[in-house]
Every structure is written in structure tokens, then in C-alpha cells.
Amino acid sequence: MEATSEQELRQLLDEGKVTEEEYNELRRALGQKKNCSTAVQAQEQTIAKPRTGFGWAALILMLAGILFPLLPIPFALMGIGMGGLEFKILLGVFFGIPCAILAFIFGIIGWKSPTGKAVVITIPILALLAVLLSIAGLVFAYPLMTSPSETVQRIRYDYPLDSLENVISRDSVFFDNETSSDGKGSLRIEAGSPGKKVIRIVETGPLTIANQVLIYSAKLRTGDFDGKAYLEMWCDIPGKGEFFSRGIEQPVTGRTEWTSVQTSFRFESRQMPANVKLNLIIEGDGTVWIDDIKLLSGPLIKE
User: Fold this and answer.
1) How confident is the model over 228-276, as pLDDT tens digits?
2) Which residues are bridge partners to 253 per DSSP?
3) Do 181 and 250 form a contact (C-beta atoms < 8 A)?
4) In the beta sheet, which residues pair with residue 189?
5) Integer CA distances (angstroms), 14 to 2, 6, 98, 225, in order
6) What's the gap between Cα 225 and its chain centre?
7) Which end of the chain is more exposed for a tag (fewer CB within 10 A), N or C?
8) 280 in helix, strand or coil?
9) Of 240, 303, 295, 242, which is closest to residue 270 (Cα–Cα)?
10) By the 8 A CB rule, do 265 and 242 touch?
């Protein structure tokens, strides 16, 4: 029978079944066996223990890689920071890609932890989705990029002027349900005396727009009118003041049918108006109708 403990060895020695020399040799062998078993157990525990630190680091880096390209969007919309929206997104991607690569490496190192596995599996999926979304974006955006600028104009506000609701100026301003460009009525202004009159139609309040052109369009008609009428737009830019744009190159004069007119204002980066005022300027006397007001935004064409 093989002795498995020092006590059993001692019993064998006392019973005379082993000599003193054999006892000492067996005792040394038993000690070596215990030390080997302890080392193996310690090694197994070390191997089995997951590297949770690397897994959590990979998860944090992965989240940073996702957030970096997204965080610049609200800052760009608020006009904070240098450059336009495209520049800020590219800057976010510039910092996000290294985070994603490091997350993948840390995930492999910490593969035994659940977070490490999740990161290593998730990052390739996110990369594939990003590629697919980029391809889809190019496919759908290409027709817009190659179309005339009118096709990519976005309606910010639409004022059909089917009533006096929201109309600011009321002096000599009336709702006319018989004369209209769309059959639903219009505003009729009776300019009874010569001189310049500012008819305040509506105000938008704060407007989010950057790196675009803002277009104020409307339809005008005149009756017995001696003078000229045109559109005026005031833009209040915080920290800089109020700026205006007037459609003096597109006035209506004399007696006219419904005529489409407009005026525009360019908004460079970080120029976001706190308010936009849409007015009608009348220089002369007679009757002027205004209808179908729209506030549009379009691509900013570099001059």
C-alpha cells in the first residue's frame, strides 16, 4: 500500500515495515509530490482566471469609439467649435477609429471575460454596418448632389396666409378670401398714401441653420399700384447684431398678376439666427396682395 501522508509513513516505520532510510526517502518523495500538486493547482487557477481588466478597458474604448463620431453633431448644429458639420464628424471619426482598434486588441487579450468576448464580436459587426450605411448614403445622396439646387431646398416654414393668424402688422392689412394664388385667401395691403411702408408679416424665432443659404419666397400681386413692392428679411445673429436681405432686384410694379419673388441670406459656419423677420416693403400707394410665403434652406454655393 502506498503511503499518502506523513502519518502513515510514521506508522509503517513504527511497525518495522520500512527501514529508517526507506522512511526518509519516502518522506522526501511525498513532500515533492505535494509541492508539485500545489504548483499545478496555482497554475490552473492563474490560467482559468479571466482578464476582466482588459475586458472592461475594451468595452470603455469601444463605447468611446462609437461616441466620438456622434458627439460633434449637436455641437455642429449649435455652431460650437471650428469648422462645419462635415469637419466635426471627420474629427470625431479620426479619434474614434483608434479607440475601436485598441478596443479590439484589448478584447482579444481579455477574451476569457464576457466583456472581452462581447467587444471582439461587436466591433466587426459595427464596422460592417458603418460600411453598409456609407454605401447606402452615397447611393441615396448621389441623385441629390447631381440635381439642380432647387431640388435639395428644404422648407423650414410654410405660411399659406389663409388667415390673419400670426400676422404681426394689422394696420391697412386685411384677409382677402376672394383673391389668392392657391384659392384659400391671401393678405391684402391697402397702401393709401405715398412713402415707404414696412409690413411685418411673421417672425420665426430661433432657427438652426449653418453653412446654408436661407431663402424667403412669396407670391405678390398688385392692383392699382403706383410704386414698387419687394420682400425684406432680417436675421438676428447672436453676438453680431441684425442683418437684412432685400429683394430689390425683384420688385413688382404697376398692375401685375401673381408673381413669385424671393430674397436670400447666406449663413456661414457658426452663424445661427435667434430670430428671422419676414417683411413686405411697399414704396408707393395702391393695393398689394401677398400669399404663399415659404422659408427655405439650400446648399451654400461658394462664390
Assistant:
1) 999 999 999 888 899 999 999 889 998 899 999 999 998 876 678 899 9
2) 228
3) no
4) 173, 288
5) 16, 12, 72, 135
6) 49
7) C
8) strand
9) 240
10) no
Geometric angle at alpha carbon 221, from 220 and 227, rounded to 5°: 95
Q: Which residues lie closer than 8 Å to 38 by C-beta, 6 or more apart?
A: none
| Burial class of residue 153 (count of CB atoms within 10 Å of its CB; 0-12, 13-18, 19+) | middle
How many residues does this entry show for the chain?
303
Cβ–Cβ < 8 Å for 215, 293: no
Residue 87 makes CB contacts below 8 A (sequence gap 6+) with none
User: Where are the chain's structural domains?
Assistant: 6-48, 52-146, 154-299
CA triple 251-156-136, angle to 5 deg:
125
Q: What is the secondary structure of 214-228 as a DSSP string?
A: EEEEEEEEESS-EEE
Provide the residue type at 238 as one letter.
P
The highest-level CATH class for domain 154-299 is mainly beta
For 180-187, which contacts have Cβ atoms below 8 Å and span 24 or more sequence positions?
180/291, 181/219, 181/221, 181/258, 181/291, 181/292, 182/291, 182/292, 184/160, 185/161, 185/291, 186/161, 186/221, 186/289, 186/290, 186/291, 186/292, 187/161, 187/289, 187/290, 187/291
Given a cut of 60, whether residue 70 has pLDDT beyond it is: yes
Please check whether residue 87 is in contact with residue 73, taking contact to mean a CB–CB distance below 8 angstroms. Answer: no
Contacts of 238 (CB under 8 A, 6+ apart): 272, 274
Cα separation values, 259 from 34, 79, 149, 180, 291, Å = 102, 36, 21, 12, 10
Q: Give how far the C-alpha of residue 207 lies from the chain's centroid of Cα atoms, to the nearest Å.
A: 16
Show the cell assigned to 219.
Answer: 407670391
3-state DSSP assignment of residue 43: helix
pLDDT tens sequence across 187-203: 999 987 778 899 999 99
Helix (H, G, I), strand (E, B) or coil at 144: helix
